[in-house]
Design a protein that fits this description.
The structure is a single chain. The chain is built from ten helices and ten strands. The protein is an alpha+beta fold and 278 residues long. A six-stranded antiparallel beta sheet has the order 1-2-9-4-7-10. It has a four-stranded antiparallel beta sheet with strand order 3-8-5-6, with no helix packed on it. Strand 5 and strand 6 form a beta hairpin. The termini are far apart.
Amino acid sequence: MSQFSTAPLLKTKTVTIRGIVCNGECRHKSDEECAHRTSLVYPYRGVFMRHVGHNDTVAEANQVLFFNASQGYRISHPIEGGDACIDLAIDEVMLEELAPKDQVQPGPAFAFRRQRRRIDPRAQALVALLRHGLSRNVAETLEAEILALTLVRRSLGERTSHAAGASAGRQKLVDRAKLVLSSDLARRWTLAEIASEVGVSPVYLTQVFQQVEATPLYRYQLRLRLARALDLLGQYEDLTALGLDLGFSSHSHFSASFKLAFGQSPGEFQRSAQLRRR
């Protein structure tokens, strides 16, 4: 009997992500299980087979598997070594907004037509960024939510319902989001909170912000925090406190982000600008 371990990595109103590891001891088909919710599963190590009726799917790191709510399935491991994957679930209303119509079954309940879809190296890199960032507790909630939506969008293919372009209405929407972020730089905003403040869906907000600013929402927030750090460096002797006061998860997170942006650590910048008190 294969042994599973499941670790919660993120749970917000927008997205739920779990890490799942199976030792693969069960080589034959498992008893039938039933998916409790619609989710996208990204294997990143090992391989398993998913059996839905007479449809068999090889699950490995070049694929994303679609698990439809209330759909029965069985799992088997044709080769030794087990497997590991992340399970990503977002609200079905947002899935409908993200998924091209030709990938969705007709009917009142949302369900994917296919069992799997091939993903490209950039999607695989997003899987790794999410997994490492969340497991090491260095990815902030907003960053992880937007990376997750970006991963889903890339996995499904882009929809064309929202044309690119910085119209006056789009610019006003983005400006409202900027004001929300600027109102409390240290707050660990969630995507749902920001979207609620500006009055649009999380999916639409991330897409429009990217189009107008050519940068993700979380990265824009990071730049705001780092700009504020430059302003406050002369007032802090304890740089760990400065990072925490600005919403960074740790001193190492603050220092690494600062150095990536400015080429120096906060302490090095303090010294080069002669901001330390003597």
